[in-house]
Amino acid sequence: MKKAVAKPKKTAGRKPSASPKDKTAKTKKLSGKFLDVFNRVKVIAAKEAGAEAKMLEICWLLNSKFPHYNWAGFYIAAGDRQLVLGPFVGEPTEHTHIPFGRGICGQAAERGETFVVDDVSEESNYLACSMYVRSEIVVPIFVRGEVAGELDIDSHQPRAFTEEDRRFLEKVCGHLSAIF
Ligand code: SME
């Protein structure tokens, strides 16, 4: 059963998830490079390998195919409402354990929603990993209706993440719930 969560404060620079009533976001098909990379994600997910190896390969794939994805990594939800850093590609981060509610990752986990932050300098509840990061997207991964993990992408470009990035990454995460 889905837990009730407190209504978040509005913060400048943040785009909420598409409304559940907005079916276009969920049904619109991927195209071009997004479709090609999504198909490669499906191949990786189907491999005879452990979940960690698959996640790391997906991080490499995303980081190498999209120049605006400067840091790509997974956080895994532990039982105590904490996110624990999993496989990632990019600069090492001190944020290896993030409580639900803290930072962009923690807020996405608490709300069970994708967070897109166009300008991290305008987000008050933000945990900085690198001074070069300008925008960020965090997409939850659900298992049986609960947040089991997240995919976090940082960009050195402001406003790097379009609706198509969001749709693509939500499809990737929807597919990855099977490997969690
Ligand atoms: N910026 C994130 C922390 C994780 S790093 O980006 C890798 C946040 O605010 O939750």
3D structure, described in words:
With 180 residues, this protein is an alpha+beta fold. It has helices at 23-27, 32-45, 51-65, 103-111, 163-176; strands at 14-15, 71-78, 82-89, 97-99, 115-117, 135-143, 146-155. Strands 1-5-6-7-2-3-4 form a 7-stranded antiparallel sheet, sandwiched between helices. Helix 2 (32-45) packs antiparallel against helix 3 (51-65) and helix 2 (32-45) runs parallel beside helix 5. Mean pLDDT is 90; it is low at 1-12 and 18-24. Bound molecules: methionine sulfoxide. The site of methionine sulfoxide (SME) has 15 residues, from strand 2, helix 4 and strand 7.
Q: Profile the largest sheet.
A: 7 strands, antiparallel
Average pLDDT: 90
Would you count the extended β strands for me? Answer: 7
Element-level helix/strand string: EHHHEEEHEEEH
List segments where confidence is low: pLDDT < 50 over at least 5 consecutive residues: 1-12, 18-24
Query: What strand line-up does the widest sheet have?
Result: 1-5-6-7-2-3-4
Number of helices: 5
Strand content: 15-25%
Radius of gyration, whole Å? 15 Å
**Structural class determined from secondary elements:** alpha+beta
What percent of residues adopt helix (DSSP H or I)?
A: 25-40%
Q: What is the distance, rounded to the nearest whole angstrom, between the alpha carbons of the first and last residues?
A: 19 Å
- The general outline is globular
